[in-house]
Write the structure tokens for this entry.
Amino acid sequence: GRVVAHSLLVGLPALVAFAVVGLCVFGVYSGYLYFLRPDASFALGHPFTPDHRFDASWGGPTLVGAWFVHALVVLGFHVLAVPLVRGLTAVQDRATRRLLVGREG
């Protein structure tokens, strides 16, 4: 009973943390490695030259500008995600300690 209840209790924070970490990994590709994306890699030969294909991109019309803005957005998300994931894992840790202490006592 207690183990099942514990598993259900820590399942939600684990699921949220998993989703946040997944978004962080995606952010590495779409932000920090923006210049490697198929829709941006065409400009690797001229990163400082304005290109009309970046007109609608955040930070366009150059590859460097678009990469910089995308990287800053992802950095902001990562700054918020780290304490969130730490908090979620702390909730799991406290619940697990209660479960283990309850078994010993």
Observations:
- The chain has one domain: 2-104.
- The two ends are 16 Å apart (CA to CA).
- The chain is about 70% helix and 0% strand.
